[in-house]
Amino acid sequence: MAKQNSATDRLSVFRKGAYVVIFILFVRLVDVQIIHREGYKVRGERQYKHPINLYPERGRILDCNGELLAFNVPAVDVSANPTEITSAEEAASLLAPLLGESQSRLKELLTSNDQFVYLSRNRSSQIFDRVQDLGILGIYCQKVSKRKYPKEHIAAQIIGFTDIDNRGLSGIELSFDKQLAGVPGKAILLQTATAEKFFHSEYPVFHPENGQDVVLTINYHYQKIAQDELYKRVLETESECGIVVILNARTSEILAMASEPHFNPNRAGHFHPSAWRLRAVTDQFEMGSTLKTAVMSAYLDEGSKNPYDLIFCENGRCSLFDRTIHDTKPYGWLTLRDVLIKSSNIGMAKTMTEYNHERLYEYINAFGFGVRTGIELVGEVPGILRHPYEWSRFTPIAMSYGYEISSTALQMACMYNVIANDGLLMRPTIIREIRDKDNVIKNHDSREIRHVIKKTTADTLKAILGEVITSGTGVKAKLSGVTACGKTGTARAIKEDGSGYEKNKYIATFGGFFPQEDPKITVFVLLKNPKVGSYYGGDAAAPLFQHISNKIIEKEGVDYFTNMNHQTLIAEKQGKEKRVPNLVGFRKPIAMKLARKENLNVKSVGNGKTVIAQQPEAGTSISENQDIIIVTEKESLEQGHYSVPYVVGLPLRNAINILAARNIRAVVDGSGRVVRQQPKAGQKIKPNEQVMLHCESSIDVGKLLTL
Description:
The chain is α+β, with helices and mostly antiparallel strands. It is built from 24 helices and 31 strands. It is 34% helix and 25% strand. Strands 2, 3, 4, 5, 8, 16 and 17 form a 7-stranded mixed sheet that branches. Strands 10-9-21-20-19 form a 5-stranded antiparallel sheet, with helices on both faces.
C-alpha cells in the first residue's frame, strides 16, 4: 500500500512538473508569437535579408562646348559586418596591404559591436576582385562612383566639389546637387546558410535614376586664359587676391569667372577654405573710379548735362562739406567728357553738387547695385547701397567717384554690360541647359531685366570709354587690332571689420568691353592690394584686361571681332534676328528638333549620328530665313568618292573649312557669302576634284561710295 502511494505521489509531481513546463512554453510562445513578435521577426529577417542601396550615377558638368569639367570614375567601398568576422586579426593582416590602411586600425574596426563599418572608401576599382578573392566572411565590396575633375584648378570655384558620399559642398555641385545627384534605388538580397547572397523575385529591385548633366555657359578656353593671366598678374604685383569676370556682352552669359588664390577640387581638403570661395560673387569692395561710368550715365541720360559742359577742377585739390578731394594730377577746366577720360574725382564731385540725389539712387539701383544679380550660385552677396534717407551730406559726393557704395565684381561686369548692350540690363546666367541623356530638360536663357539708359546715352559712353583707352588713364589696356572701351579704378581697401580704411592698401580695377563698334566680350578685373609697382588701376589692372582680351582675340582671330558689326548689319537687313542655339554634341534628330523649336531652318551635312560642328556658331544672331548647317561625323570615302556638303549661305571662310574637313578643295569666284556651288550638295566627286564656290558681298559698294 505504501509503495502504491509513493508511485501516485511521483506521478502527481511529474504531472505538476509537466504542467509547469507546458505553462512556461505557453508563456514563451505568447511572448515570442504575440508580445515580441515584431522584434523577433526583424531579428530573423536580419539573418537572411540584407537590404542594400543602389547608388545612381551623378550627372556630369560640361562647358558650353561640351568639354568635361566633372564626371565619375569607378571606385570601390570596402565594408564589414564585425559580428560575422571569425578572426579580426587575420582579416586585418590580409586587408591592410590591399587597402593601404594600418593593421591596428582595421583590427579595431573589425572588433567593434556594430553590424556595419566602412573599412575604406573610394578606392581604386582594381582592388574589387582582390578583396573578393580573399573570401573573408563578413567583408563586403560595393562598386560606387568617385567624382573626378579633369581640368583640376580650372573653373574649380565655379564647379565646386563633393564629399565622400558624392554630395555637393560648393559651387555648381552644391547649387544643382538635386539635379546632379539623381534618385537612389533599393534592393533586398537573401542570404543562404553559407553566407551566399542572391536576388529573389519576391523582393523587387528599385533601380536608381541617374543624375542629369549640367551644361554651363563657361567657355573652358576663356576660363583657362583668365586663370592663367590672373595667376601671373597676382604673382607679378604680389596682390593678396584677384578676380576676373568675362561676360557675353549681348546675353550676359558668363564665359569665365576666375579667383586667386585657386585650388584643386580633386584634393580640396589640402587647400585653405578661403581658396574655395568664388570671390566674384562672395566678396564686395568699394570700386572707386570704375563706378564713375554709372554716375556719368545718369548725368547724360537725364539730359541735365552734356559731354561738352565745362567744369573747373580746382587744379587738383578741392574742399566740399569740410572734406578735401584730390585728383592724381592738377586739372583746370575740363569738359564732362574729359572728366571721365582723365578720371577727375573733383570734376565728378562738383557735378554731383548740381544733381538730384534721389535720381542718383534710382539710376545706381537700376544698374543692379544693392541687390543680388540672381546668378545660379550659392553665397552671392548683394553689396551695399544705402537708401538716401541714410545718407550724409557727403555721401552722394563720395558715390560720384566710387566710395560709400560696395559691389561685387559680377555686379560691376553687369554694369559695363549695360553700356555695351545699348542700355539693356540682362540677368547674368552660368547655366546653359540641363540634360537627361540626349534630351534637354531645361534651357536657361538670358532674361531681360530693364532698360537702364537710352541707347543714345550708351553710344555716347562708348565713345568716351574708347578714348579712355586711346588717350586717357587706360592706355595700358589697348588691344591688338581691335577697338575697346573701358575705365580704370583705384580705391582704398576697407578694413575687415568695416571700421575704416586699411593703411596703404588699395583695390585696383578695370572694366571694359570690345570691340567698341559692336561689343561682344565684357571683362572686369580686380586686384586687391598690389604691392609691387603702381597700385593704380591704370597700371596694375589695365594690363591684365589687355593680356586676357588679347589672348581671346588671338584664339578667335581678329576677323571674328572686326567683322561683327558688318555681320549684325547684314542680319538686320535680312530680317528679324534670332539667337543660334548650341547643337554640337546632340544626336542629329534632337539637334534638328531643338532648332525647329526656335523656328530656324536646319540643313545637315554628313551621314553620322552625332553633330560635331555647326555654322553659324552658338550664340550668333541670324535672320529668320538664314540656314543653320549641322555637321555630323565625317563621312568615309565611299567607293572612291566623297559626298559634296551643302555650303550655300555660309561665309566663304566657313564654307572652305567644311569642305577641307572632307578633303575637298575649293575654287572661289568672288567674295563674301556663298550664293551658288557646283557640284550641288549630295553629289559624289573623286578625290582631288574641286568644288566651285560662287560668292557675293552683302555690301552695296555703290552705296558706300555715296556715303
